[in-house]
Amino acid sequence: MLTKRIIPCLDIKNGRTVKGVNFVNLIDAGDPVELAKQYAERGADELVFLDISATLEGRNTTLEMVLSVAEQVNIPFTVGGGISSIEDVDRLLKSGADKISINSSAVKRPDLINELSNKFGSQCVTVAIDAKQIEGEWIVHLAGGSIPTQWNLFDWAKEVERRGAGEILFTSMNNDGTKAGFANKALARLSESVNIPIIASGGAGTIQHFVDAFEMGKADAALAASVFHFGEIPILELKKELKQNNIAVRI
Predict the structure, then answer these.
(1) Can you tell me the distance from the alpha carbon of 131 to that of 201, in angstroms, rounded to the nearest whole number?
(2) What is the pLDDT of residue 23?
(3) Mean pLDDT, the chain, as a whole number?
(4) SS3 sequence, the chain?
(5) What mean pLDDT is predicted for residues 139-153?
(6) Which residue has the higher pLDDT, 59 or 46?
(7) Residue 85's pLDDT band (boundaries 50, 70, 90)?
(8) I need a surface site. Which of 165, 200, 208, 215 has the fewest CB within 10 A?
(9) pTM of the prediction?
(10) Are 27 and 19 in contact (CB under 8 A)?
(11) What's the farthest any 2 CA atoms get from each other in the chain?
């Protein structure tokens, strides 16, 4: 049985870790490199770094931060934000990232998924999907959740799988930062729609929410930010509880 992964997410803006609610009202959560080091020591399986303003500001993710993280941690980490070419990914992987995450650039030019998968292997390519439930339909949004698209979540997920994505990071914009639980119905439907791993994101507030994401949502991994950044849920304690619920995790 494959173990379920616990993944702290560090949203980066101006070189600092930030966290908001429903993608707005950002507050400072600390130095990303120091947080990354702590998470690696405290049992995180992977890390995700998202430069949340890179796309809006039309620039690349900061390579200096990636180099610093690679020197400090011994677990896999994914980097996203402003990635739009093979050259961008080549620089990030050479700087120490294990995987990259693309979002807006993939929707704007879906061939990018094929190009990156063919060049670096699907295991390196995560497609992040930010979706918002509007009148019962899950609509994919771009640029930090600020621009709605014509895609619905499930059709786009099938498309990115077909093009070679190795996994999907699904963030429910409705749940993000609310600490009211993950979007488990959408997660379960998503897991049934594709055959690649799904990372659940948006809404973690309690240990039970993680249990539900794995049991009800059928997620392969669960990602969270503020509950880890502000010490509300220690990762080791979370994993022990998951194990008691017969959910396979690495401790």
Answers:
(1) 11
(2) 47
(3) 91
(4) CCCEEEEEEEEEECCEEEEEECCEEEEEEECHHHHHHHHHHCCCCCEEEEECCCCCCCCCCCHHHHHHHHHHCCCCEEEECCCCCHHHHHHHHHHCCCEEEECHHHHHCCHHHHHHHHHHCHHHEEEEEEEEEECCEEEEEECCCCEEEEEEHHHHHHHHHHCCCCEEEEEECCCCCCCCCCCHHHHHHHHHHCCCCEEEECCCCCHHHHHHHHHCCCCCEEEECHHHHCCCCCHHHHHHHHHHCCCCECC
(5) 90
(6) 46
(7) very high
(8) 208
(9) 0.92
(10) yes
(11) 46
Q: Counting every residue, how long is the chain?
A: 251
Tokens linked to 243: 């194990």
What whole-number distance in Å separates Cα of residue 73 and Cα of residue 36? 7
123 CB burial (10 A radius; 0-12, 13-18, 19+): exposed
Closest residue by Cα to residue 107 from 163, 38, 63: 163
Contact 125, 164 (CB under 8 A): yes
Q: Which amino acid is at 168?
A: I
Give the whole-angstrom CA distance, residue 249 versus residue 31. Answer: 27
- C-beta of residue 171 within 8 angstroms of C-beta of residue 157: no
**Among all residues, which ones are annotated catalytic?**
11, 130
Instruction: Report the C-alpha gap between 39 and 235 in whole angstroms.
Output: 8
